[in-house]
Amino acid sequence: MNDIQFDENPLTSGLADKLLPQACTMVIFGGAGDLSRRKLIPALYNLALDGLLPTQFAVVGFAVDALTDESFREFAREGIETFSRRSLSEEDWEDFAGHLFYQQGNFSDAASYAALKARLEALEPQFGIPGSRVYYLAIPPSFIDTCVFGLHDGGLVAPADQPLPFTRLIVEKPIGRDLPSARAVNRSLKACFAEHQLYRIDHYLGKETVQNILAMRFGNSIFEPLWNSKYIDHVQITVAEAEGVGTRAGYYETAGALRDMVQNHILQLLSLIAMEPPWSMRADVIRDRRLDLLQCLRPIRSRDVDRHAVRAQYASGFYRGKNAPGYRREERVAADSTTETYVALRVFIDNWRWAGVPIYIRTGKAMPKRVSEVAVQFKAVPHMLFNTDTDHPLEPNVLALRIQPDEGMSLRIGSKLPGPKVRIYPVKMDFRYGSTFGDQSPEAYERLLLDVIVGDATLFMRDDAVEASWQWIQPILDAWEASGERWLPEYPAGTWGPVEADRLIDADGHAWRQL
Ligand code: BG6
């Protein structure tokens, strides 16, 4: 690995000058699992290729699987070969592999923590690591408590008030499955760690295009003056996935689209789109603004849930030339499951900026394609001077932020059609990451892991934000549960969602964007 020259990160500029990746060991709980293989190890490898990892750095996989250092390295290599953004080169791999280790252990066994501690204490001096550690909990949520207390009771957590050595804990979603359980998780975390040691990860916040929302809003002077109810008609957030539930039914059956996508990723996206300008790029200043926004979401009362929220399940359909099964026919899904695979919402933000502006959200699995987008539709021009012919009304301006794929941004404006008549035609001003910056953007996990190594919590969720978003979600969950519905509205796999979702937006005189 190279010595670090940490490029200034435009998002945290000012802070980035001071923050450098710090020598540490990253211990991956569940190191032999899927997240580790698909995301974490490839992300670390790419950071190493970019020379962004500290020289004094080691990775220790910690899990119950019977692996050795050698077999863990083979496992890591296969993960990189299959999932890495950039392909594996023998020379870089040799160097990287020399920093990978494995410790077998049982998460609920004190002796395993003692062995882990001894192993870390033996490894750290070899790399000149001062005992600073990042623990990544890549484990099912039911193990969070066990691991957190295991670390604490095993003497593996450094005092919170000392700068070095530091301990940081990365916790994966889901943080709870409703408000009470999220509070319980936060209580356990805070019994053993101080808030500044905690990094609750939401990988959407690590996506380049999601970070660009702040850069776009506050790094330009032309958007912010228009960013309010005077000029914005409505906002649409779409997170569509082409895949069905795949092999994850065990988890998904306990979650559903509202918990899986809206409570975390989409509300975080919304908070960046709609928050007030922060007065500094310090982590807690930005996190305060995001929290403020979540607290301004108008609660949906139980009796209004049906007017503001639609849930649905994919039924069998024809997709990409193949018959696709309905959700209830998927492996490990109950034949009478009422887990929603699609949700559409109409949301209001009760503050001066957003008064009366509807925000429409839709997300689902088994949709026609994978696409995530935030579209801000501006109000119609106040006085019709052009295209007075009602067959050709003027199209409103739309600023579309494409989060994935084809990351970029486009602005639809009206332009005169060439010719003697004055006719306005919608045209697009397009910016694409791919064509402008060439290289592939880093993966979300690259950015987020680096931020933890650096100690920048801006893109992580604080306890209060997690609880605020559950607080808003909870009445919807309660109303759905109380309804006792045995059948949800359906949409054929490979389509854009149920007719009920079209009605939701149509009731306000709008339509979902065609993507
Ligand atoms: C995860 C959800 O958090 O995000 C998955 O649990 C979902 O169900 C995934 O597929 C989507 O992430 P991305 O980065 O592929 O949009």
Summary of the model, kept short:
With 515 residues, the protein is of the alpha/beta class.
List the helices and strands and how they pair.
Blueprint: E1 24-29, H1 34-49, E2 57-63, H2 69-83, H3 90-97, E3 100-104, H4 110-127, E4 133-137, H5 144-153, E5 167-171, H6 179-192, E6 198-200, H7 208-218, E7 232-240, H8 249-252, H9 257-274, H10 283-296, H11 305-308, E8 309-315, E9 317-319, E10 322-324, E11 342-347, E12 359-364, E13 371-378, E14 398-404, E15 408-416, E16 424-432, H12 433-437, H13 444-454, H14 463-483, E17 490-492, H15 499-506
Parallel strand pairs: 1-2, 1-4, 2-3, 4-5, 5-6, 7-12, 8-17
Antiparallel strand pairs: 7-13, 8-11, 9-10, 11-12, 13-14, 14-15, 15-16
Bound molecules: 6-O-phosphono-beta-D-glucopyranose.
6-O-phosphono-beta-D-glucopyranose binds at residues 203, 241, 260.
Q: Can you walk through the features of this model?
A:
Helices cover 34% and strands 20% of the residues. The chain is globular. The protein is built from 15 helices and 17 strands. A 9-stranded mixed sheet has the order 16-15-14-13-7-12-11-8-17, with helices on both faces. It has a 6-stranded parallel sheet with strand order 3-2-1-4-5-6. It has a two-stranded antiparallel sheet with strand order 9-10. It is an alpha/beta fold. The chain has 2 domains: 10-172, Rossmann fold; 206-380 and 458-506, Dihydrodipicolinate Reductase, domain 2 (2-Layer Sandwich), CATH 3.30.360.10. The longest helix has 21 residues, at 463-483. The model is unreliable at 1-17 (pLDDT under 50).
